[in-house]
Amino acid sequence: MRLKNKVSIITGGSSGMGRSTAELFSKEGSTTIISGRRTKNGENVASRIRKNGGDSIFIKADISKNDEVKHLVNETIEKYGRIDILFNNAGINNHGLGNPHEEDEKVFDEVIAINLKGAFMCIKHVIPHMINNGGGSIINNSSVLDTRANDSSSTSYHVSKGGMNMLTKKSALAYAKYNIRVNSIQPGAIATEMSGVIWEDLNDNSINFERSTMQPLNRMGHPNDIAYAALFFASSESAFITGASLVVDGGASVAHKWVP
User: Fold this and answer.
1) Catalytic: which of 80, 157, 175, 178?
2) Is the distance from CB of 31 to CB of 50 less than 8 angstroms?
3) Starting at the edge strand that comes first in sequence, how are the strands of the sheet with 7-11 ordered?
4) DSSP summary character for residue 243
5) Quick one: which of 90, 112, 116, 104 has its CA closest to 37?
6) For the chain, where are the E strands, in sequence order?
7) Given this model, what pLDDT does residue 149 score?
8) How many CB atoms lie within 10 A of CB 66?
9) Measuring CA to CA, how many Å separate 98 from each of 94, 104, 108, 113?
10) Is 157 a catalytic residue?
């Protein structure tokens, strides 16, 4: 019960890393507010948590829109009175557009709006309540691509995650005096919908085998691997850590070029 009596907001919480984190946080005692754009998926995750004895609700929000972020935060405060943890997890990518000159402006704007502006807006509206609470923990789900480039992801994705890296550092510096810690996670190849693996297929042996060859550690990167990293940053176990980034990539980034 490392998060007993804590209230957490998890964006992009209806699938993948967000869902795993919502379920784990709930098991550790947190009230979990799941946010996302897909109502049915989000309600299903919240209902599953409640059936397992947890306290969870879904609040629909497009975090690229200021009014919807304000609604998310205000609804949480109205119902629970506090926000202790924010997991900025929501994100999108476009794997078909690798080069800057090939990327459509609308795609670029959408990715930046959700991945980077969305995290900024959530921090902007959550911080005043964390200051009133006397502290809190913000976790930004970034990527190993926030400091490295490859050919498979869009330019906008790289730029958004690079910005997330600096948003983490700037926020950590700005709010340390309020006992608010801000850290980030750098996931590698994790099996999520964004990478073409739906939740129901996470135990598929063929998928597990295929994805086990994508990094030096010979196993698939699972959404739970990110959830446990987020739990560490959310809990008091990381009480003296802020402005840090934790790489969770199975060792892929330690090699100049990993060729399985």
Assistant:
1) 157
2) no
3) 56-60, 31-36, 7-11, 85-88, 136-141, 180-187, 245-248
4) S
5) 90
6) 7-11, 31-36, 56-60, 85-88, 136-141, 180-187, 245-248
7) 87
8) 12
9) 8, 11, 12, 19
10) yes
- CA 53 to chain centroid: 24
Which residue matches tokens 């934790």? 246
pTM recorded for the entire structure: 0.95
- CA separation for the pair 104, 67 (Å, rounded): 26
Q: Average pLDDT for residues 210-216, to the nearest whole number?
A: 93
For residue 86, give both structure tokens.
Answer: 């924010």
pLDDT in tens, 176-193: 999 999 999 999 999 999
- Report the alpha-carbon distance of residue 141 to residue 119 in Å, rounded: 9
Give the span between the Cα atoms of 190 and 220, in whole angstroms: 7
Q: What is the pLDDT of residue 11?
A: 98
pLDDT tens sequence across 114-170: 999 999 999 999 999 999 999 999 999 999 999 998 887 899 999 999 999 999 999
∠ Cα 206 198 71 (to 5°): 160
CATH of 7-191+226-247, one of 3.10.129.10, 1.10.3720.10, 3.40.50.720, 3.30.470.20: 3.40.50.720
Closest CA to 80 of 23, 26, 32: 32
**Which amino acid, one-letter code, is at 99?**
N
Query: Which amino acid does the sequence have at 173?
Result: L
Count other Cβ atoms within 10 Å, centred on residue 109. 13
Helix, strand, coil percentages (3-state) for the chain, rounded to 5, are 50, 15, 35
Q: How far apart are CA 26 and CA 119, in angstroms?
A: 22
